[in-house]
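Reviewer 2 asked us to include a model.

Predict the structure of this chain.
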Amino acid sequence: MSLWPAKGSRAISIGLKSALVLFAGAAILRYHLIRPDAASSGSAETHTMAPPFDIRISMDDYPARVLSPSRFTVELRDEAALPITGARIAIRLSMPEMLCGTSEFTLRERQPGFYEGQGIPFMPGTQSAAVRIAAPEGEVVVQHAFTAVR
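Predicted model (structure tokens):
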């Protein structure tokens, strides 16, 4: 007796149909989880305290557009709410769930305590911006999650 069904068997037909239904269901589920109009995670702004820094990260246009420059602004203050000047700030964009590479850029100080720069997300979905701040007061890396769409 063989473990494999006989050629032309009804079991093969049911097995193939079941596999196709499972594959189609997985494809539909994946589409609904990462479709471009689903801005389900991330936000236009992140505010965090990382002593001695009070950090506010924001994006001008939200959600970000794939393969288009997105402006990031970092407002940097000390614990007394005074602007921190002369900091070096760099951002690395990535998609933690994908292996699509990273995009890095630096920010320039536009006015005391306000730094701006532009980055380009590569793919639609949830992105992570690792913001590295180096100032005389100290160094820190904070995360800003945001969504990019087509």
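Residues 19-40 have pLDDT under 50 and may be disordered. DSSP finds one helix and nine strands in the chain. We have added this to the supplementary material.
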